[in-house]
Design goal:
- By secondary structure, the protein is α+β, with helices and mostly antiparallel strands.
- It has one domain: Elongation Factor Tu (Ef-tu), domain 3 (Beta Barrel).
- Helix content is 27%, strand content 27%.
- The protein contains five helices and six strands, in the order E-E-H-E-E-E-E-H-H-H-H.
- It has helices spanning 32-35, 112-129, 133-139, 142-145, 153-164; strands at residues 6-11, 28-29, 45-53, 58-67, 76-82, 94-104.
- It has a six-stranded antiparallel beta sheet.
- Strand 3 (45-53) and strand 4 form a beta hairpin.
- The chain is globular and about 40 Å long.
- The chain binds adenosine-5'-diphosphate and magnesium ion (MG).
- Residues 12, 14-18, 20-21, 26-29, 81-82, 84, 86, 89-91 line the site of adenosine-5'-diphosphate.
- It comes from Echeneis naucrates (Live sharksucker).
- Pfam families: Flavokinase.
- This is Riboflavin kinase.
């Protein structure tokens, strides 16, 4: 996928409450405006990378990009699980992410246990892969350090354009 690493940010919106949090794996959803800006070579499946909420610390993340059954699979969704324990929900905050690598395609599971096991494998894989020096470099990129929620959104989106265009 030529578009990786891919940088993007957007407000955290409410999902469909499909119970991710109850599984111990909450996923922060991006609005359609962010999903629609995904390059066409970014396939559905599971990705790993870095994420930061507002001006907070940068953490490892896994992201699922999938066809959304709620919209009869005509729309995609981007759901990020930040590998960190937060004290509170962060709906309405700006989530910044860089998608670094691809783990696997989407799959359907016969049991909840199998699904949870697969996600936990993805998390372990993300943790290990992100320790590579070339990936650690992205954690420290200007994309995360330069962002301030005080900036007008045009400034935030132009920094996104600059990063993706190198
Ligand atoms: P929803 O259907 O609204 O997305 P979830 O059960 O998937 O509900 O929970 C997602 C919400 O949980 C996020 O929007 C965020 O506010 C909160 N949250 C707390 N911890 C995390 C985390 N580590 N990663 C992602 N979201 C988290
Ligand atoms: Mg969710």
């Amino acid at each position: 996928m030529r578009s990786l690493p891919f940088f993007c940010r957007g407000e955290v919106i409410r999902g469909f409450g499909r119970g991710s949090k109850e599984l111990g794996i909450p996923t922060a959803n991006f609005p359609d405006s962010v999903v629609e800006n995904l390059p066409s070579d970014i396939n559905t499946g599971i990705y790993y990378g870095w994420a930061c909420v507002g001006n907070g610390d940068v953490h490892k993340m896994v992201m699922s990009i999938g066809w959304n059954p709620y919209y009869k699979n005509t729309k995609k969704s981007m759901e990020t699980h930040v590998i960190h324990s937060f004290n509170e929900d962060f709906y309405g905050e700006i989530l910044s992410v860089v998608m670094v690598g691809y783990i696997r395609p989407e799959r359907s599971y016969t049991s909840l246990e199998a699904l949870i096991a697969a996600i936990n494998n993805d998390i372990e894989e993300a943790k290990v892969k992100l320790e590579l020096p070339e990936h650690l470099k992205l954690r420290d990129s200007n994309f995360f350090t330069r962002f301030s929620s005080d900036l007008p959104s045009t400034t935030a989106s132009s920094s996104q354009t600059i990063m993706n265009g190198h």
